[in-house]
Amino acid sequence: MAAVDDLKFQEFDDAANLLAANPDATTISIDEPAEIPKNQHSRRQDPGREEDDELLGTDDSDKTEVLDRIKGSVFPVPGKNFVRLYIRSNPDLYGPFWICATLVFTIAVSGNLSNFFIHLGKPTYHYVPEFRKVSIAATTIYAYAWLVPLALWGFLMWRNSKVMNIVSYSFLEIVCVYGYSLFIYIPTAILWIIPQKVVRWVLVMFSLCLSGSVLVMTFWPAVRDDNRRIALATVGTIVLLHALLAVGCLAYFFDAPELDFPAPVIPAHNVSTVVTRSR
């Protein structure tokens, strides 16, 4: 240790003598390399991870943004564009994916419970869970949430080549709008368990007005500068497809025609009858 201290002291004297001889000289100290923070090191190793986190919403700030977008879809601001107000060229797939997944299981489970409560108390009814409703609901919801935005995106791109001043959205922005617009149907599907058709149709109309208004206020600015008939037909088709999804789910999973269960057949026993003649 003493030898090391003497060596450091000698280096310090040499540096002091050098500065005394030449005041403009600079000294360089060689230290151990600084430790790179773990998060910075991981970012350097994977530069595309930050972009993936923004798309999938794995950051806490992104999750807060998802909640804001859900609130915006449930309580739309009149006259405000959902894309410009909430998405702002930063679409995510985290919210739309889990909204669709939650809606699938909510519709399937609520449909089974509704069928159970309708036939509860009937001696001829035997409850059997309909697991096929999960696959049917998943196919319907995810096909709507992806194929309809794909068709709409292609149509807007085609019209944008015809009319230069048409507002265009990216495919992910359209998927994001459609995904968040379906959130209102999750609590609606739970309330559809109530075995009253009037209540169910009031709920579906209310939900359709809220979610449909989000779509109309978002896509009307994109087509309003196009031909008037084409613009109205486009918005009308968007609303019609959205209404068909809601009404179709209600009619298939909740308002299916009630089956008349036949009464159990009791086998008749062979009874021998004795006939006597009166004389």
Question: What does this protein look like?
Answer:
This protein is mainly α and about 280 residues long. It is built from eleven helices and no strands. α6 packs across α7 (about 130-160), α6 packs parallel to α9 (about 185-190) and α10 (about 195-225) packs antiparallel against α11 (about 230-255).
Please identify the structural class as seen in this structure. Answer: mainly alpha
How large is the radius of gyration?
34 Å
* Relative strand content: under 5%
Count of separate DSSP helical elements: 11
Q: Kindly state the number of beta strands.
A: 0
Terminal residue distance = 142 Å
Mean pLDDT over all positions: 77
Q: The biggest beta sheet, please?
A: none
Q: What form results from the Cα inertia axes? A: extended
The helix fraction, in percent, is 55-70%
> Which stretches are low in confidence, meaning pLDDT under 50 for 5 or more residues running?
30-45, 258-265, 271-276
Q: Output the helix-strand order.
A: HHHHHHHHHHH
